[in-house]
Amino acid sequence: xxxxxxxxxxxxASVNDQTPLDPERARRRLEVAKAWAHVVGRTAYVPMTIDxxxxxxxxxxxxxxxxxxxxxxxxxxxxxxGRALVNNDFTGPESLQCTVEILAAALLLDSDxxxxxGFAERVVGLLSGLAxxxxxxxRLRTLExxxxxxxxxxxxxxxxxxxxxxxxxxxxxxxxxxxIGIALTDMSGRFVQTNPALAHILECxxxxxxxxxxxxxxxxxxxxxxxxxxxxVTEGITPRIRERRRMLRQDGTYAWVYLVISLLxxxxxxxxxxITMVENLSELQALQNQLGQQSVRDMLTGVANxxxxxxxxxxxxxxAGPDTSITLLHIGIDSxxxxxxxxxxxxxxxxxxxxxxxxRAIVADHNAVVGRVGGDEFAILIExxxxxxxxxxxxxxxxxxxxxxxxxxxxxxAVCASIGVVEHTGRVFGRLDxxxxxxxxxxxxxxxxxxQWEIHNVHDDADDRARFAITSGMPGAWECGELxxxxxxxxxxxxxxxxxxxxxxxxxxxEEGRLIRHYECRDMAESTGMSLTIGPWAFDRAxxxxxxxxxxxxxxxxxxxxxxxxxxxxxxxxxRVVARRGLPAEQIEISLDARAVVADRGEAQSNLQALRDxxxxxxxxxFTGSQTEFAIVEEQEIDSVILAGSVTATxxxxxxxxxxxxxxxxxxxxxxxxxxxxxxxxTAQDAAWWHAMGVTLAQGDFAGQPGDLDTQLSExxxxxxxxx
Length: 724
Fold this sequence. Notes:
Layout: H1 23-41, H2 50-69, H3 76-87, H4 95-109, H5 119-162, H6 164-176, E1 181-185, E2 191-194, H7 196-201, H8 220-234, E3 240-248, E4 254-265, E5 271-280, H9 282-296, H10 306-318, E6 325-333, H11 336-343, H12 345-362, E7 368-372, E8 377-383, H13 391-403, E9 406-408, E10 411-413, E11 417-425, H14 431-448, E12 453-455, H15 458-472, H16 474-479, E13 483-492, E14 497-509, E15 514-516, H17 518-528, H18 531-547, E16 555-559, H19 562-566, H20 570-581, E17 588-593, H21 594-598, H22 604-614, E18 617-623, H23 627-636, E19 640-643, H24 645-648, H25 657-671, E20 675-678, H26 684-692, E21 697-698, H27 709-715
Parallel strand pairs: 11-12, 14-16, 16-17, 17-18, 18-19, 19-20, 20-21
Antiparallel strand pairs: 1-2, 1-5, 3-4, 4-5, 6-8, 6-11, 7-8, 9-10, 13-14, 13-21, 14-15
Helix pairs in contact: 1-2, 1-4, 3-5, 4-5, 5-6, 11-12, 12-13, 15-17, 18-20, 20-22
């Protein structure tokens, strides 16, 4: 079977009808032509039927494919294809892009040379030639159109001398009705005729341009360059000049325009007039100015955005001398989510605008810049002088201003702020160090409460940085196996025998070269949310280790963090691990954080009942003895409680009210059938004191240090009974 294609009816490259094609290749080429016609037909108006378009484009596909497969590669047919596309009006805004995208894929498939060297270069060469021909065709078409306009103007001028009425009608259609400003000037630059569009661009009356010289419409600084441009056209150095310039309006302001300067000659080639076409770019320039403002200004508040604020800080630091002093304030709006959630984001946006305006007003008399560096966070950079107030005065002024209600609708809204302060002299620190220090100070202020401020402290900041650096590396350390599980014995105070092992974390930090113990690991994991990942892993690891040993009458205790206690997936994880490792459920004790349970964070209270339904021992730690905690112990039938550190931190005297209250609390819990324990007990004397108070279980230095499972079970054998 042969695929025969007739020569194109609309010009362009022809098809070699003697080239035999296998049916599959012929079908693919036809599909490419149809797809090409479908896509390009949506990008441009082409005066052909769909069948004519397909036939024409099939011819071009064949020419390109033949050139690609030829023994001697010649990309010139692709140039003809590009020109043919222009000549047949395939000139929409996206026509060339669609053409290249379709042909790139089609040419790669329609060739037997795909595996030969230089094939990709052939494809690129053909597409480049096509684009070159297309661009050349478009350029020629544009030049022809411009030439038509120019000739139409000259013809109109000549016809005006012979047949004034007909010529004027034609001239007005082209000249006066154009949206582009057009000026006809003699060789000295004097206006012969201008159209209304030019007067509109220059915001003057058409008569105001009479008898004026074109050079008068440009700023004095640009006149010499403009004269040179006209001279180059006159002398034939270039046929036309295209350039972007400013023109003077009637009121002295500037209009940004795009000029095209060309020359009209008579029949003998003698220059007669200059034609100046003026396209108004003022709106485009205004848009560019607006975009420029948006690149340095926060769109909502109008103050400097984060990038611009940082560049300002860089500039100050780069020009700083040894005595240059700056103050950097990082301002975080307290509880801003209350406004957004309570009154809506429109009110929240309005309040951000109010805050920005107030901050600008406060530092208006100082060499300062205000920036928005976060959603509800601002920063102020002040270059200090002898008139700059103390930062405490600024902070008080800021919060006093912010405390004044702003009425938005019927709501009088006010805010307060937590502020971090950095005072810096010279160029000791860079921009990133200063911004981070101010942010760190603001975070410490927020941790204290609302409407607080903190000044940057080098030592505290260094400690924070070291802690944050270690914390941020915890996920990687866990992934690399640096984290492990260890166990700390919990003993019965009646006989000092081990009845339970608390599962704890340890981290042999490779870079720090030190061992990070459980409480520090726990706090770091909790601050990053890693506790929800590491907790189940540690629990499963401990259960697996205990299941491999001979049965031992010892419990595994997990004291959960607030985040773990509130996790809605807690009961399912515990149930899954216990079932997989084959341990008796009653050999597992899960102690939830009492603070999370009392606050009913997440699923904390629901987890108590769900864990009990799974059969594990359920407890509370950080127990302080509040009425709410006692109610939860009674309602949820809690098995054990561990007293909070605030209760066990001191040993008051025997007649102390605290001793009596603590003893009464322990006695009440014991009467309810609840096992009472304490942790971090340092000495045997302390353990004996707590035993006398009625506590059943204790953990601490007196009972032994954390270690691996084999060591703990061999050094602290469990009693033969059921334990405490």
